[in-house]
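Bench notes, bay 3.
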Amino acid sequence: MLRLLLLLLSVVASVLAAPCTPCDVLPEEQKSALSIVLAALNTNIDTECSRLVCSSSGLESWTASSSLSGTLSPAIGSLSSLTYLRFSSVISGLLPTELGQLTSLSYLNLGVWSITGAIPTEIGQLSRLTFFEILSNNDGTIPTEFGQLTSLNSLSISAFSVLGDIPTELGRLSLLRSLGLSTGITGAIPTEIGQLSSLLNLYLPASSISGPLPTQLGLLTKLTRFLLHSSSSSLDGTIPTEVGNILSMQSFSLTSSYMTGSIPTQLGQWSGLTDLELKLASADGVIPTHLGQLTMLDQLSITSNTISGTIPTQLGIGTLAYLSLIMPEIEGTLPTQMGQMTSLTFLFLNLPSITGIIPTEVGQLTLLNQIHIKEPNQLTGECWPFPAGAGTVSVGVAFKCGCNSPTPLKSCIPPQDCETPNTAAADKCIACVDGADLTNEDECEDRNGCTANGGDVAACGNVANSVCTDVGLNLRTCECSLGSTGILPQNFTDDSNTFSGECYDADGCTLNGGQIAGCGNISNTLCANNGPNNRTCQCAPGYQGIPVTTLADDDNTISGVCEDVDGCTVNGGDVKACGNIANSVNVLLVIKEFQ
């Protein structure tokens, strides 16, 4: 048996060590270029073999391993037969302009985090390209040459440095179906956007778009999904009524603190709409009754500080599963038609000016399992009309349900559902909301969502170098730890753990401005990145005065002076410092500041 096991192990070892036979057919020029490219990424053809598709014509496809690191060599330009190229690994340095020589390329995904510098304009020469995506810390702008990529179906650029305005030349991409630009986009949406006649998806999250929104958006008659979240105070104006012409719209999400005007009634023409999110702090007018025509609506969320009036009775839409209304100026009462929302599972109301009682019809919503009514409010009632089996319940109403007075973390269960209502056993009528636990004193305390899920890394999907922060009731945030980058902060409820991706070590020297700036702007210093949230500073060769100092990525408190070292004395004096040549003397002292 042992002999058989040893034989199997030797066979497996020989297979793992076998050369990449399929790529033996590569022309010598391409094999040589591929070897150079892989060497710069600290790997080789045999190791990367399973991710390469080779033929006698050349390398056709490469889905790079996520474990690669290093730089992308200019030799990649010699792999001219490539049609598919995808990276998801930590590659650093500049993107080579030679990418523009891959004229057979139809798919290019550079979804990496450490690429720096501008996006090469030469990529605009890839006339066969149908898909382009990059996710990194590039700087510069979106090349206007991208307007030449007339075969492009999908364009996605996410960067953490300034990208500037959206080039008007992108209006030439008549075949474009999906456009995603985020983090660094500034300026107005160009009117040429209306020429993208094939566009289905337009995503502009985390941008600094300014306004107003062009009326030409109404020309995108095939658009199904629109998302614009802008933090810029320059995104002003109103929602163009022309967007009501996009009858194909299925999902519409708009966030701006400075846009004004009312919600267009034309939105009621989107008969296929399933998701509508409007976070418009400065919008005014009323909630349009025309929204009641959206009979396919699944999620509705409206936030505004200045929208007034009442809640339209027409919002009693049977398909609605998620409803969130945050509007301090809305008055009147909660309509009884809420009982018609038979698909409702989540209800969030922050309506401090609403009066009256919670309609008993809400108790008919058997699917409703999360109810949040924020304080302060003017609602009253003799008993909370819970649906049977409701899960998360957070109310701020002075109910008399045979139990102790509710608190923000506690709710009352109706007397008929208590084992001994109106008695000393009042604890049997208390339920804690999701994210809170009942103590021995019959009080509800906020649960630490991070600790409950195993601590920082475990609570963040076991993503290395991640950190978890409990930020309130039933809510925690996961993000990359200090000194790491790769995933934007994400919020989760205490019972959710879908955080995924990778957090890569950030170059602490680069984050602090480079060698000199990363060492407190002390001349003649060397900065070295040593891992997550760790860098060292010391005097450059030929200088002394500051010992090797370890710093966190956000620490730049090093001080002192690096002075020129007497090279003659350090090397033993005149004769030793001159190679032990008798009768020699060092007569020239050169001081050069380290840059």
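Next record in the batch:
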Amino acid sequence: IMMLQSLKKATKMKFKMHRQSLGLVSLLINQIPTVISENTVCIDNDAAIVEKAVEKDLNNISGCIDIADACTRTDDIGTFVRANCCETCEGAVCIDNDAAIVQKAQENNIDDISGCIDAAYACTLADNVGAFVRANCCDTCGDPNSNVPENSLPPSDETVDLYLLGGQSECTGGASAETLEADSENYPELQDEIDGVWFAGFKAPSAKDRFFLTRMKAGEARSGEKFGPEVSFGERMQAITGKRIIVVKYCEGGSNVHTQWNPDTTENNWSKEDDNGYASFLYDSVDFSSKAYLFKNMVYTMRMTEETLIAGGVDYRWAGIVWVQGQADRDEGNPVWKTFGENTARVWNGLINEIGASVPIIDTGGGFNNQLTSGKKYATQLVEGCMAHNVQPGAGAVDDTISTCIPSATDTCFGAEGLFVNFDILNFYGYDPLFPEEYKPEDATNKVFRWYKDLEGGNNHSEDEGMILKGRMLANAFVKEFLSDEYDLPSEYGDVDIAIKFPHLKCEGNTFATANNMCWHDYRDAEISGSGCPYQPQDDDAICVDDDDALVKAAVSSGYNNISSCGDVSASCGNNNKTGRFVRATCCQTCSESEVRRRRKHVRGGRTLQLIL
């Protein structure tokens, strides 16, 4: 082996792979002979290569040097070679083997893994699972010893707005920065470093010592130069508000709210009495190699951001939360919508508690799933402060009474009974380059739009244009829902917004979608769906009482000294903005005179209401 390695380094010659080596078979977790940790030196395992070759009667393979060309293969042979010939394959083009990850997950009865993007947490594991993931997800995992970008903070002459971005794979993002860069004509504002926008998070593979805060640039944080909704969201928020924006991102593919993001689990808990509020307090208990610690890891991320800004003399304020999640909870609970809604609201309330103020939340991720969409709507009724809004484009719909398939990150369900696709959207923006011709309508346009990573290969996560559209949708909805008192959404933004132009409408009554009425079915009880926020189960003994003290306190904090009771703000009960939501939550008795349903709603506390009015 040493002689082969010396020969390889001395000659620097490239050898062709012998055709017979195609007989190498796929490698399962327990067949990988070596374990690679973050600090292990990369050395070829020529003995494993020769042993496997002999098993297949390939007697002319003397080691990694004879199969160098297999380093770039995208099949199981390439996976095997990269796992055992890391030195030879160093510098080779690295491509994820999503199919192998999905297959292995299915063999182990794990159904929330759609590819490498959902297994990124395992990249740094120093065991056979980590070795398997690194071998199959070399692009996602990247180099654990790669340099973390240096911090580059905003100037200290004005307060910056922080937006917390969390969720699962569409939040993580697999969109290609290289493809975006090649399309500078259509997206000039998203090229290179974006003016007035910063990113705070972790350099892949995520680890607690790999935090950084620098100018926003697509692909800067993730290996393989990939990005999520943070790029277009941050740019759009800055363009509308004119404020400096920092997107604080921590996402994990395939993650759920019932356990992994749950702030009440043992793994996500810590001694609140001893907590000094610093990231250092959580340092020894966070774990970025496990999905069980996601909420705690998020809090650590938030604190690292705050402390980095404080150290640099930069004032900040938490302006909002962006949540992109849902599919991992599609089978949890009975009914799913209620369990999912309660679990989602619990996560949001945990984040609000850490921030210390009820900030607005913009949410997406229900897709075509009626149960998840209903649950998300329910979560907006339960969140503290009543400032959460779900936005989803009307891309299509599913009739659950006859459907055989609900679209997901790995299955488009083309041709499935009960699935209705809104081709108006595709005709407006364009069809994915790999969209099957046989499913296009007769009036299909020739427009092309990069919606998905690999439609043929079963990777339905957003490609760069689809991701840009999603980020802009979230930003536009945030402005319309929570900042309409201060900013107008320019028509050039709204006219091409996918959720504004093609809204996700609710079906009337207890009906389901049809080809001519693509709507989402609301599974919530009529009493719940007809109520606003805050929602409490109907109780004939519940008494609705105005919280005048909370109102006055919030008014004074906002510079209004002429408000003495809820009666002074009764005109705001019907406002469809943050002021209206605050008034309805605090002055339920006054507002109930114009809306009888609110008579049975309890009052939320006024702990953080001063930021809402």
